[in-house]
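Pasting two entries for a bug report.
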Amino acid sequence: MIPVGSDALSPAPHHDIYSIEDLRGLIFALKEATEYKKLVFVKIAAVHNVAAIASGIVRAGADAVVLDGLKGGTGAAPTMFRDNIGIPIELAVAAVDERLRAEGIRNWASIIASGGIRNSADVIKLIALGADAVYIGTPALIACGCTMCQHCFTGKCPWGIATNDPKLIKRLPPEVAYEKIYNLVHGWAHEMKEMLGAMGINAIESLRGNRDKLRAVGLTETEMQILGVKHAGL
């Protein structure tokens, strides 16, 4: 129902949610509609008061809080927005994990991190800071051949990724895309196993929230305090 010629806002504003109470009503309406067979995730941007917002979301009944940090966004996101809006995902995850633990509700919901994840080491850091899981977008696109030209919205992706043009789609057969993403994920998995082994850990579950395995290099005292990590050498 968007008038022709007008902009489509993404993400669209949710005029039915103006408070945690409104969110609680929506979450339980979704659970009722799905007969409590589907999990309900609430995705929010990583901002300065993200810990308080996440606490409200968990208390509203969400099964997971999805944090989207600095440098997250679509392939067409303006560079100025991607590099300057929000806070680093590491700070957001650490703050949310600490807040939920302090309130005794950390076991009520999962924390899923995204935005700015570029390699397997980033995954390891986020898990150690308290995330239960991560998800990726840009690395998968790059693995498929994306050159980050930031013109996804034109529908003329030369690699056949963000397009519905039959001629362009042929440039990236599904079986080829599958193989590329498979190689990416399994390559990261092998690297993560090596890092876990170097830490003396034999399971990713043992790393979650284990900030003693991390050390800071080039961070300020405030950043280290938020992250809950020690300086390198200590």
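Entry 2 (this is the one that rendered wrong in the viewer):
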Amino acid sequence: MRKLILQMQMSVDGFVSPANGGLDWQLWGWGDRWAWDDGLKDRFNAVFEGIDTLLLSRPIIEEGYLDHWGRAAKNFPANRHYAFARKVIDARKVVLTDKLQASRWPRTVVARGAMADEVNALKREPGDRHILCIGGVGFASALVAQGLVDEFQFFVNPTAVGGGRSVFHDTRKGHRLRLLDSAAHECGVVVNRYAPA
């Protein structure tokens, strides 16, 4: 069965969305300032080699995620660090929402059913490539709450933000995770990979 991989940038104090929305806390956003070292860029690109489907939230696609990486793929065709941008364009994209009637983006479908049904259907599809989830904290939290995430990839930035939102909300039992891998990079980002315990 295919895995759903949730990839998020995180602060060192565990938040994926800071309370101060104007805080510049990530070493890399969508812009041109990309302070990741080459090893981390290579690792990020390697993740995209193992996927064939992107699961996207409606807000992130409407904010320009596909347009942005489409431009990057055209602007940096020979730069190995932007190989993932070509994968973003070539991969099948699924937008999980009941607020859109049809897709306005190439190679992108709108899935309007219940979250668990749609995600589990994607996981049951044949093949050995996985599904990468890209979305905001609300979308990610809903996937976590329904137990749909098979692997967490947290890119921990060397910044404490002091407060904000997490993808984990079970205050009764918490969320037990099993460490798959942890790697520190020269730029200060630590990539932690976990599976549900």
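Dev reply: Rendering is fixed now. As a check, the viewer should reflect this: The first strand starts at residue 4 and ends at 10.
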